Amino acid sequence: MNLKSYLRGIGIGILVTAAVFIISGASDKKGTMTDEMIKQRAKELGMVEASTTVADVNR
Known about the structure:
This protein is mainly alpha-helical. Helix content is 64%, strand content 0%. The protein has one domain (3-46). It is elongated.
């Protein structure tokens, strides 16, 4: 095979991959979460928010 065939194959592969990612990304809109939803889910999983300590205030 010559260089032209390799480049054509790579180009077609890139185009097909881009098309697959565009199609899969367009159908995944219902899975987006807001910041508040993420914080609420993190609290449900046991995470805690960072709090200010006395050492931070004295700086």
